[in-house]
From TrEMBL, chain A:
InterPro entries: BSD_dom (IPR005607), BSD_dom_sf (IPR035925), PH-like_dom_sf (IPR011993), Tfb1/GTF2H1 (IPR027079), TFIIH_BTF_p62_N (IPR013876). Belongs to the TFB1 family. CDD domains: PH_TFIIH. This is BSD domain-containing protein. Pfam families: BSD, PH_TFIIH. PROSITE patterns: BSD. Gene3D superfamilies: BSD domain, Pleckstrin-homology domain (PH domain)/Phosphotyrosine-binding domain (PTB). Keywords: Nucleus, Repeat, Transcription, Transcription regulation. It is found in: Nucleus. Residues 154-195, 217-268 form the BSD domain.
UniProtKB/TrEMBL annotation, chain B:
It is found in: Nucleus. Keywords: DNA damage, DNA repair, Metal-binding, Nucleus, Transcription, Transcription regulation, Zinc, Zinc-finger. PANTHER family: GENERAL TRANSCRIPTION FACTOR IIH SUBUNIT 3, TRANSCRIPTION INITIATION FACTOR IIH TFIIH , POLYPEPTIDE 3-RELATED. Belongs to the TFB4 family. Component of the 7-subunit TFIIH core complex composed of XPB/SSL2, XPD/RAD3, SSL1, TFB1, TFB2, TFB4 and TFB5, which is active in NER. The core complex associates with the 3-subunit CTD-kinase module TFIIK composed of CCL1, KIN28 and TFB3 to form the 10-subunit holoenzyme (holo-TFIIH) active in transcription. Residues 322-342 are annotated as: Disordered. Pfam families: Tfb4. It comes from the Eukaryota. Component of the general transcription and DNA repair factor IIH (TFIIH) core complex, which is involved in general and transcription-coupled nucleotide excision repair (NER) of damaged DNA and, when complexed to TFIIK, in RNA transcription by RNA polymerase II. In NER, TFIIH acts by opening DNA around the lesion to allow the excision of the damaged oligonucleotide and its replacement by a new DNA fragment. In transcription, TFIIH has an essential role in transcription initiation. This is General transcription and DNA repair factor IIH subunit TFB4.
Length: 620, 342
C-alpha cells in the first residue's frame, strides 16, 4: 500500500502531508512546499492522544491532533485541508493506527500481567497485533475470572445482546445501586461463554451438504447462499471455482449459481446419484468430466514445468500451440507427488513388496476389485472432500509426534493398577424407619412392668383381627354420592393435567412463548416480573456474602471489613426490596391484588427469610 | 449410572399414539399397607376401615381379571408388625377356601381367588400378637419394627420380573399399585429410591393410592415411572378411584392424560433423622443426605471421615454488623473482635 499523501496547510503555509503507517514506528510528516519557509513537522503516531476533525457540515476543514503520553495532552497541531475526502482519509488512517496501538498495548499489558503471575511468556512485546500463535494464550488469559470482571467492553457487548440481562442490570445496578462488579461476579460463567463464543473460529465443514434447495410456492426452487458459503465452496471444490472463473464474465453471477444448483455437477459433488438421463445444465456439466482430483490453478505452474520437460524429452513432437497446451493442462492432471516422500506405513507400493496379499489387512473399500462403482465413487468423493478440508486447516500441531505415538508399542509398559478405597456401608435409613409410633413406644416403656395397662395396640388388635370375619363384596359403597364426587374430582384432575400438558408441548415447539396464562394486565405483570427478578438478584448476592463471610475472619481475609459493610448494604437493599414488592402490589386492585399476592408470596417469604437470618446472626 | 439416569418413560411420552394398541394381557400387582396402628388412626379420622379397602381391592382385582382371560393379578401386604411384607395371592400352597362371601351368583373362579385372599389376610391378622408386650418385649434396643412397604414393592417387582422371564408370559405388561396409609417416616429412603430405579428400568408404572398423610417419596415414585399418584379425599368412594383413575392399562399410558397429582415434592430425607429436609449436607463419597453434621465427623453411611477444618468452617455462624448504630464505629468494633462461638 502506498502511503497516503496530499496537500495540507499548517500555520497558514501550504505543504504536503504524508502518513507513513507502514514504517515502524508509524509517522506523519508535513513538509512545506518552500523548503526554507517553515521547518517540516514530524509526528510519531504512537504519541497521538486525541484527534479532532471539524464537522462535515462546517466549511472549514481542520484536523486537530493532540500529542502527549498516557492520557495527557502536551501539545496540539492543527492542519487545514483543501479536500474533505483527503482529510477523512488521513483521519481514518490515524484512527486505525491509534486503535491498533491501543489493542496491542492491551495485549502487552495482559502478557505482562501473566508474566508477573509466574508464568513464563516471551518478553518480546514489540509486535503490534497479536499473532496467530498467541491467540490461544490471549484467549485463555481473557477467560480468567478477574480479567472478565474488568473487561467492560465485553460486558457491554453481552448486555446489548441479551435484553433480559440488560433489564436486570438496569434495575439492579443502575437504579438500585448494586455494585456492577458484584453483579458480574455471579455471572462470570456467562461472560466466559460469551467471550469464547466471540473468539471461536469455525472449522471447515462440508458446505454443499448444508445447502438445501427449498421449493417455493410458485413451483420454483430457491437456494440461498451466503458470501462465506461461496468462499467455502470454492475452497473445497476447486472445480467449481474453475467453472466460475471460466464462465462468470460471460454470464451473470446469479445465473451461474442458479445453473450450478440445477446442474448434475452439483449433484455429483454432493455425492448424490447422477443418472445419465437426468436434466442438468449444458454449460456446467462439462466439468463433470474433469478430473475430480483437480486441485486448482496453483498447481498449474508445476504442470507447466512437467509438460515442458516432457516436450524436451521427445523433441520429435511438434510444438503445440499454447491454447492446446492449456486445454491439455486442464484435462490431464499429472501426478506431481513423485518428489514427495511417502511414509512407508501408508505407502501401498512399498507394502506390496513386503506383504503377500493373502495376509495382512484387506484392501481399502475403494481398492477392492468387485466393488459397486457407485459406492466407490461416493467413497472417493468423500475422501477427496476430507482431504481438501484437512488441507485448508492451517494447523501446526505436531503431526509427526501424533503419528509416532500411534505407532508406539505399549504392551511392555507397566500396567496401571487401579487402586480402590474400601468403604464400609451401613444402610442407615432402613435402621431408622421404625413403623411403631414413638409416642406409643414411650408410653409402653414408661409404664410399670408389674401392673401393665393395655396399650392402644392391645386394644385395637381386638377389633382389628375381627375385621375380615365378614366380607361382603356386593356392598363396597354405601351410597352413590361419594362415587359421583369422586368421579368429578378425577375428571377435574384430568382436565387440569390435559391443559398443562398441552402447555408443555407448546413450550417445546416455540421457545418464545414462555408466558403463563395469568389474568393480569400485561404491564402490571411485567412490573411484578421486574420486581421479582431484581429482588432475586439481591437475594443471590446477599446469600453469597452471608454464607461466605462465616468462613472468613479479619486475619484470613484482608477485605473482611469491607465485606461486612457490603453485607449490611445488601441487607438494606433487601428491606427496600420488601418495600418494592409491597408498593407494586399496592398498585394492583381488587382481584388482581390477590392474584399478585399469590404470585409474589414465595418471594416475600424468601426476602423475609433473608432478613430474619441476618437479624438472628447479629445476636449470635 | 447411565442406565439409572435413563428415563425409560420419556420416550413413550414424546411420541404418543400412532402405535398399534393390541389387547395384550397385563398383570396387576397390588401392595396393601396394613400397619395396624395407622389403621387405627385412619378409622378414627376418616372412618375408613381395612375391611372396606380390602373388599374394594378385591373387586378391583376381579375387574382386572374379567377384562382379559389371560390377565394376572398379584397381591402383597406390607408393614404388618409381625410378618413384614408377605405375598397373599397367588400362593403356592393353596388351601381351598370354604368361606361363603356374601355374593350369591358370583363367578366361581372369582370366588376361589377372593376367598383365598380374605382367608390369608385374616389368618395373618390373627397371627399378630395380642399385646404390644408379646410383640416387642421389654428390651429397649429391640423395640424396632422395620417399615416394609418398599420391601413389598421390591417383592412385587421380583414377581413381575419372574413372570416376564417365563416363556409363555413374557409379553405380559405389568403395573404396580401401592395402597399406602403410613407416612414417609416409615419408608426407608434408599430402598424406596432403589425400587423406583428398578421399576424405571423395567418400565413398570407405579400407581399410588394414598390414604392418611401424603407421601413425598411415593409421589416421586409415581412421577418417575409415569404412574398415577392420587390422594384419596373421599374414602367412601374408594372403589371409584380404584376402577377409574388407578385402573389404567399400561398399553394406554402413552396415549391418555393421567389423573395424577402434578405438584410433586422432590425433597429427600435425611439419613440420620429420617425427616424430609429442604436444605442439607451431602456426603461427597456416597451422596448420603444429612440434615445435621454428625458428632463424630464421619459419614453415617459409608464411614468416610469428613475434613475437620471444613466442618469447623461449616459450623461457624455468619458474622454481620448490627443494624441500628453508625457504620463506622461498628465496622471498627467488629473488625477487631475475634468473633467465634461455634
Amino acid at each position: 500500500m502506498s502511503p497516503i499523501t496530499g496537500s495540507a496547510i499548517y500555520k497558514k503555509k501550504a505543504g504536503m502531508i504524508t502518513v507513513l503507517e507502514e514504517e515502524s514506528p508509524p509517522r506523519l510528516i508535513w513538509k512545506c512546499i518552500d523548503a526554507g519557509v517553515a521547518p517540516p513537522v514530524e509526528i510519531l503516531l504512537d504519541t497521538v492522544v486525541t484527534l479532532q476533525a471539524s464537522k462535515k457540515t462546517s466549511p472549514k476543514m481542520l484536523l486537530k491532533i493532540g500529542i502527549g503520553s498516557g492520557s495527557e495532552v502536551k501539545s496540539e497541531v492543527v492542519f487545514a485541508f483543501n479536500s474533505r475526502i483527503f482529510m477523512d482519509n488521513v483521519k481514518t488512517v490515524l484512527q486505525q493506527t491509534i486503535a491498533r496501538r491501543k489493542s496491542a498495548a492491551a495485549a502487552d499489558a495482559s502478557l505482562a500481567a501473566s508474566a508477573s503471575s509466574g508464568r513464563s511468556t516471551p518478553s518480546a512485546a514489540g509486535s503490534p497485533a497479536p499473532v496467530d500463535g498467541r491467540q490461544d494464550e490471549v484467549l485463555a488469559d481473557m477467560l480468567d475470572s478477574k480479567k472478565l470482571l474488568k473487561n467492560l467492553t465485553l460486558q457491554q457487548k453481552l448486555l446489548r445482546e441479551s435484553p433480559a440481562l440488560m433489564k436486570t442490570f438496569a434495575e439492579a445496578v443502575i437504579k438500585s445501586g448494586l455494585d456492577p462488579e458484584e453483579f458480574w461476579s455471579t455471572r462470570v460463567h456467562l461472560l466466559r461463554s460469551f467471550a469464547i463464543q466471540n473468539n471461536q473460529k469455525r472449522g471447515p465443514y462440508n458446505v454443499l451438504s448444508t445447502i438445501k434447495p427449498v421449493a417455493s410456492s410458485e413451483n420454483q426452487v430457491n437456494v440461498s447462499v451466503t458470501r462465506e458459503k461461496i468462499h467455502e465452496i470454492f475452497q473445497q471444490y476447486p472445480i467449481v471455482r474453475k467453472a466460475y472463473d471460466d464462465n462468470v464474465p460471460k454470464m451473470s453471477e446469479g445465473e451461474f449459481w442458479s445453473r450450478f444448483f440445477s446442474s448434475k455437477l452439483f449433484r455429483k459433488l454432493r455425492g448424490e446419484k447422477v443418472n445419465l438421463y437426468d436434466r442438468g445444465d449444458i454449460t456446467l456439466d462439462k466439468y463433470l468430466f474433469y478430473d475430480p482430483d483437480y486441485d486448482g490453478e496453483e498447481e498449474d505452474t508445476d504442470i507447466d514445468k512437467l509438460l515442458e520437460e516432457k516436450k524436451e524429452e521427445d523433441g520429435s513432437r511438434k510444438r503445440r500451440n499454447s491454447e492446446q497446451l492449456t486445454a491439455a493442462k486442464k484435462k490431464i492432471r499429472l501426478f506431481t507427488q513423485d518428489g514427495k516422500q511417502v511414509s512407508k506405513f501408508i505407502d501401498i507400493k512399498a507394502n506390496k513388496e513386503d506383504n503377500p496379499e493373502t495376509l495382512g489387512n484387506g484392501p481399502d473399500i475403494t481398492m477392492k476389485e468387485d466393488q459397486n462403482d457407485e459406492l466407490v465413487g461416493v467413497m472417493r468423493s468423500m475422501n477427496r472432500l476430507s482431504r481438501r478440508m484437512m488441507q485448508n486447516i492451517k494447523d501446526d500441531a505436531d503431526m509427526d509426534r501424533e503419528f509416532e505415538e500411534e505407532l508406539e508399542l505399549r504392551d511392555l509398559d507397566d500396567a496401571n493398577t487401579v487402586e480402590y478405597n474400601q468403604l464400609e456401608y451401613t444402610q442407615r435409613s432402613n435402621l431408622s424407619s421404625n413403623i411403631l409410633p414413638a409416642d406409643v413406644l414411650e408410653k409402653f416403656n414408661s409404664q410399670s412392668q408389674l401392673n401393665p395397662t393395655p396399650t392402644v395396640y392391645d386394644e385395637y388388635m381386638k377389633t382389628y383381627k375381627l375385621q375380615l370375619r365378614e366380607v361382603d363384596l356386593s356392598a363396597v359403597y354405601a351410597n352413590k354420592k361419594p362415587l359421583l364426587d369422586t368421579y368429578k374430582e378425577i375428571l377435574n384432575i384430568t382436565k387440569k393435567n390435559a391443559k398443562s400438558q398441552a402447555w408443555t408441548i407448546k413450550l417445546d415447539t416455540s421457545v418464545e412463548k414462555q408466558d403463563v396464562d395469568v389474568d393480569l394486565p400485561r404491564d402490571r405483570l411485567e412490573a411484578l416480573r421486574l420486581t421479582h427478578s431484581t429482588s432475586v438478584e439481591f437475594l443471590r448476592h446477599f446469600w453469597l456474602h452471608f454464607n461466605s463471610i462465616s468462613t472468613s475472619s479479619p486475619s484470613t481475609n484482608p477485605n473482611f471489613r469491607a465485606e461486612l459493610l457490603q453485607l449490611k448494604k445488601l441487607y438494606t437493599s433487601i428491606t427496600k426490596c420488601v418495600d418494592r414488592v409491597q408498593s407494586s402490589l399496592a398498585q394492583l386492585d381488587g382481584a388482581d391484588r390477590d392474584l399478585g399476592r399469590l404470585l409474589m408470596d414465595p418471594l416475600s417469604a424468601s426476602l423475609a427469610q433473608a432478613l430474619t437470618s441476618y437479624e438472628a446472626a447479629i445476636v449470635g | 449410572m447411565d442406565a439409572i439416569a435413563d428415563r425409560a418413560f420419556t420416550e413413550s411420552q414424546t411420541n404418543p399414539a400412532h402405535k398399534l394398541v393390541d389387547e395384550t394381557p397385563s398383570l396387576l400387582a397390588v401392595v396393601v399397607d396394613i400397619n395396624p396402628l395407622e389403621w387405627r388412626k385412619l378409622e378414627k379420622e376418616q372412618s375408613v376401615s381395612l375391611k372396606q379397602v380390602v373388599s374394594s381391592i378385591i373387586v378391583m382385582l376381579n375387574s382386572h381379571l374379567s377384562l382379559n382371560s389371560s390377565n394376572h393379578v398379584a397381591l402383597y401386604i406390607a408393614n404388618s408388625y409381625s410378618h413384614g411384607a408377605q405375598l397373599i395371592y397367588p400362593r403356592t400352597e393353596s388351601s381351598k377356601s370354604t368361606r361363603f362371601l356374601h355374593t350369591p351368583g358370583m363367578y366361581r373362579q372369582f370366588r376361589f381367588i377372593d376367598g383365598s385372599i380374605v382367608d390369608t389376610i385374616e389368618h395373618l391378622l390373627n397371627e399378630q400378637p395380642d399385646t404390644l408386650l408379646q410383640l416387642i418385649g421389654r428390651e429397649q434396643g429391640k423395640q424396632h419394627i422395620k417399615g416394609t412397604l418398599a420391601g413389598a414393592m421390591s417383592m412385587a417387582l421380583c414377581h413381575i420380573n419372574k413372570i416376564q422371564q417365563s416363556d409363555e408370559l413374557n409379553a405380559l405388561k405389568s403395573r404396580l399399585l401401592v395402597v399406602s396409609i403410613s407416612d414417609d417416616s416409615t419408608l426407608p429412603y434408599v430402598s424406596v429410591m432403589n425400587t423406583i430405579f428398578a421399576s424405571q428400568k423395567m418400565k413398570i408404572s407405579v400407581d399410588v393410592c394414598k390414604l392418611g398423610p401424603s407421601s413425598t417419596f411415593l409421589q416421586q415414585a409415581a412421577d418417575a415411572t409415569n404412574g398415577v399418584y392420587i390422594y384419596i379425599t373421599q374414602p367412601e368412594g374408594l372403589i371409584q378411584y380404584l376402577t377409574t383413575a388407578l385402573f389404567i392399562d399400561p398399553m394406554l399410558r402413552p396415549i391418555i392424560v393421567l389423573p395424577t397429582d402434578e405438584s410433586i415434592d422432590f425433597r429427600a430425607s435425611c439419613f440420620i433423622t429420617n425427616k424430609v429436609i429442604d436444605v442439607g449436607y451431602v456426603c461427597s463419597v456416597c451422596l448420603c443426605i444429612l440434615s445435621v453434621i454428625p458428632e463424630d465427623e464421619k459419614c453415617p453411611t459409608c464411614h468416610s471421615k469428613f475434613d475437620h477444618n471444613l466442618i469447623t468452617k461449616l459450623k461457624r455462624k455468619p458474622k454481620v454488623l448490627p443494624l441500628k448504630k453508625k457504620d463506622k464505629e461498628l465496622g471498627d468494633k467488629n473488625g477487631t473482635a475475634t468473633p467465634e462461638s461455634a
